Amino acid sequence: MAVQPDSGGKDDVKTQFVTREGTYRLMTLSEYSRPNRVGYTSGSGSTHVRVSLVSLPPGPGGGAPGSDGQASDDRICFNHGKELYVYVYRGVKKAADLTKPVDKKMYKGTNPTCHDFNAATVTPESVALVVGFSTGQIQLIDPIKKELSKLYNEERLIDKTRVTCIKWVPGSSNLFIAAHASGQLYVYNEELTCGTASPHYQLFKQGDGYSIHTCRTKSTRNPLYRWLIGVDGSCINEFAFSPCGTNLAVVSQDGFLRVFHYDTMELIGRARSYFGGFLCVCWSPDGKYVVVGGEDDLVTVWSFGERRVVARGQGHRSWVSVVAFDPYVVSFSEGDSEEVADEDKKSESVQCYRLGSVSQDTQLCFWDLTEDVLRPPVRARASAHLSPNSQNFSPNGVPGAKVPTKCTKTNKVGHKHAELSGHNNAAGEPSGAKPVAKTKANNVSTLNISVGKAKEESSGSLGVNFTQRLAGFSFGERRSDHRRNFSLSKPAEKTSATNTVALRGKSAGTHTNDTYDPLKLIGTPSCPRFDECPVLEPLICKKIAHERLTSLLFRAEYFVTACADGCVNTWARPTRQHNGEVRPRRSERADRIDLVD
């Protein structure tokens, strides 16, 4: 490989690195962690350190009030162990003040595992933060006002397993989605309560490899919908909405990427991992590509328009934990250079995407996804589709599925899912799904999401050849023990096993399709052989932490990383002098990219 990952000693951690646009530098004064953080000790990390950022709108004084009375527009939230912290985020301009958190919470018997700010309802004086926990509960708080505090699944009657991913529905003020390690995904309305007894579900809709259920209740309550996706409840490790909010990409421990149309609940495309499960997923800024990372140590690029895997990136030496596009670093066609990427004369056609990834090998990789790789000559594309094993598969990998070709960016609040009028669903039935007779159920317009179950611990996988990888194909997941002693609420009453495995028997027909045989997918557009698609090399690959990296977020002037020891770092972008001002070298015009479905 042209770019080799760092192979230095354990303490050979980089504090700066150089790309063709300049030098990225670690801002040591902008490090966030627990206030009483001790020095690095091997093996002391938490596996679920996540970071959430939100920008507050300007207040009357020109900025949102900070905890020290100074104006600051950003809030950062991160978790470590049993603790959750919210700070005023100062970026690269000022040093972090760890002595004055906006909010700090410590939990007994349970750990926060994921969280998300609601950008649709944020004000200078208020922001909604939803938090998922290792024992299945969900909490809604306002770290600024501190008046809001609600619990969902408090008695663990809905699900007893760890919340693996939680996010607000784009544009919605009250709907959020939570995926659990049981392999199920739930849709909640923060204005509704949960039942006092174990929910009873009825089949609402099913399609190829997934099924949707609603609660059989007389009145609307949480959860509004439950999704069951994949084989035998394989853990959903992460899900992500497209930039236009129309589509939902889901990755799970069974090694599949599944892309759904959110409003119609239709499966419109999928991809299979080269080996093991997929762990993370993200969309390109224009919605044309989905990138996933997983236990095959690879970064896989899937084209939404062509419904196929178009490239793989090889550079990490362990499981890829986070992938994220950098929307502020793009190159356009017509010969526009990166240095003038912010000029208004530029074409709207993206020629090169910048992608970042972090892994359990403590390495940060940057990738340039160029047009010549993503859009090879027509003849090469045709030959890839004519692989012998692909004869029985449609171009999008879903037999018989009808897929939309275009969408526009919308601002539909809740995507028609917040309408609570009547028991009948107003959305049309997807062509690839089988409608089910409706009885009394939650009265909400159709929602769609996905389910899954997350892999617990991870160990670095060594480089092996293709034959060895196939011989070691792992399509199941370890079933973790459910901890029953925790403390957000009173211990739950003994409930039936139907909470986590209900309806699996009834909907088993949705999971036994031959198209989900991993070996039969080898050589198809969903999982081309290793020599059938381009293999990318990283632009840079640097060791930047002692512990496994768990978060990566890009902003206009910096990017943020976090690792398992609870340390959140800020990296400043390269700067240039322009008319007496210091500005980022790359484009900040990511909002000009056309969104597609």
Automatic annotation (TrEMBL):
InterPro entries cross-referenced by the UniProt entry:
WD40/YVTN_repeat-like_dom_sf, WD40_repeat_dom_sf, WD40_rpt, WD_repeat_creC_regulators
Q: Where are the WD repeats?
A: 271-312
Q: Where is the composition biased (Basic and acidic residues)?
A: 578-597
Keyword Repeat carried by entry? yes
Q: Which UniProt keywords apply?
A: Repeat, WD repeat
Q: For the region Disordered, what residue ranges are annotated?
A: 576-597
Q: Does the UniProt entry include the keyword Chaperone?
A: no
Where does the source fall among the domains of life?
Eukaryota
| Pfam families named among the record's database cross-references | WD40 (PF00400)
| Alphabetical list of PANTHER family matching this protein | AT02583P, WD REPEAT PROTEIN
- Under what name is this protein listed? WD repeat-containing protein 20
Q: State the organism of origin.
A: Papilio xuthus
